[in-house]
């Protein structure tokens, strides 16, 4: 496929960057979907490649901390693979897992705010992602089913900015939930980020900060109870 993103104008930007041009991209993807053991195991795999021209990025305005503008920085490419498997190990046990790897880099001659970023990692792109989990179910009565599930999601390290000056290290999040569901009603308890992992999923350059960056902490451990009616 051929992608297109319109150009435009910046309300605030350094002199000479008031307008930005269109962005174009070629995107190629292929894969396979398969099943085995009478459908009890399903496996998917895919490979992809994206090539950008005149890539548009949100860049910090060095003359006005906290202000950003859009600019065409040059070329970039992203390629990788993804795998996913779902299996019914038992009539009451479902297992699932996935893994993805991405190699995303700026092309030769790419500049950002006047600096050469050729070969740098594209911001906010984890090197890999992975997930592993299971769901257990048990019929209590013909009208009620008990269930519980847990998953571990892992995110690889990624850069916050195009100059690759700061990054978030790899981290993992565990989530669990359990409850009872009937034909029309359900109730469950859940915990997200079970181990209260500290991470910063979003950060941006800010010259006034001691580290040169401002970030937003990820969601800490949260828990609750949900109940509802289904139609």
Describe the structure.
With 231 residues, the chain is mostly beta strands. The protein has strands spanning 2-5, 8-9, 19-20, 23-36, 41-60, 68-90, 93-106, 111-112, 115-116, 128-141, 144-155, 158-159, 167-168, 171-182, 185-192, 202-205, 213-216, 222-229. The strands form 5 sheets. Strands 1-4-5-6-7-10-11-14-15-18 form a 10-stranded antiparallel sheet, with no helix packed on it. Strand 5 and strand 6 form a beta hairpin. It is elongated, with a radius of gyration of 23 Å. The mean pLDDT is 93.
Which series of helices and strands comes N to C? EEEEEEEEEEEEEEEEEE
Flag low-confidence runs: none
Overall pLDDT = 93
**Approximate strand percentage:** over 45%
What is the distance, rounded to the nearest whole angstrom, between the alpha carbons of the first and last residues? 40 Å
């Amino acid at each position: 496929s051929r992608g297109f993103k319109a150009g435009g104008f910046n309300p605030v930007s350094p002199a000479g960057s008031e307008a930005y041009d269109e962005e174009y991209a070629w995107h190629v993807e292929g894969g396979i979907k398969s099943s085995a053991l009478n459908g009890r195991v399903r496996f998917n795999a895919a490979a992809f490649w994206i090539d950008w021209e005149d890539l548009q990025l949100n860049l910090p305005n060095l003359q006005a901390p906290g202000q950003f503008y859009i600019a065409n920085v040059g070329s970039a490419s992203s390629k990788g693979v993804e795998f996913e498997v779902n299996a019914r190990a038992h009539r009451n046990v479902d297992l699932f897992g996935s893994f993805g790897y991405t190699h995303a880099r700026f092309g030769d001659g790419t500049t950002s705010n006047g600096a050469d970023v050729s070969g740098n990692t594209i911001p906010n792109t984890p090197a890999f992602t992975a997930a592993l989990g299971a769901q257990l179910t048990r019929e209590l009565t013909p009208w009620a089913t008990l269930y519980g599930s847990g998953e571990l999601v892992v995110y690889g390290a990624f850069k916050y900015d195009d100059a690759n000056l700061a990054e978030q290290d790899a981290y993992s999040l565990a989530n669990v939930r359990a409850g009872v569901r009937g034909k029309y009603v359900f109730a469950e308890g859940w915990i997200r980020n079970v181990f209260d992992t500290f991470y910063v999923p979003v950060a941006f350059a800010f010259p006034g900060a001691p580290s040169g960056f401002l970030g937003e902490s990820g969601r800490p451990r949260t828990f609750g109870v949900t109940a509802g009616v289904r139609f």
